[in-house]
């Protein structure tokens, strides 16, 4: 498995293999943020096919309450692995890759949000990787459905953060071939 930074040509491939669930292309939005330098959009590949993605938002979580509670804490956002390959270590590899990039930038901590009580398996993974709860917040986002209707969403979430050491996190490898 290879992890790369998203390129323009990858956006269409991501949309083909990991389609946004709406008319709004989340991949295009993340790539645009990378273009203005506020994000790094990571893509995991297996045999020329994108199988997972994660965005590092260098300015931190969009929610003001999180940025106030944990200033200067970039966020890993939009972490998703294609369904048949979940449980094979790809999510872990993406998180570790994001942590290494953060350490290279001199960042001292990194965080991510998880549904409050709605995603216990993801929460268990993040806890195992050293992420600890910091603050509850409302994750506010919107999307345009295929019928053109705009939906504004408010998801109760918990922001988890991890202190990073200057030693690079070892890559423990992935179980997927
Ligand atoms: C959460 C997610 C990114 C983890 O990536 P992954 O490659 O499946 O995770 P890994 O293989 O590195 O680690 C496995 C652990 O992930 C967690 N996990 C969460 N959802 C899982 C799923 N649907 N299938 C398998 N593992 C999942 C479990 O803790 C699992 O450990 P376990 O097998 O001991 O229960 C991925 O499962 C996914 O895309 N889920 C759906 C979208 C999502 O919930 N995104 C996170 C939003 S906060």
Automatic annotation (TrEMBL):
Pfam families: Acetyltransf_1. InterPro entries: Acyl_CoA_acyltransferase (IPR016181), Bact_Acetyltransf (IPR050832), GNAT_dom (IPR000182). PROSITE patterns: GNAT. Keywords: Acyltransferase, Transferase. CDD domains: NAT_SF. The keyword Transferase applies. Residues 1-154 form the N-acetyltransferase domain. This is N-acetyltransferase domain-containing protein.
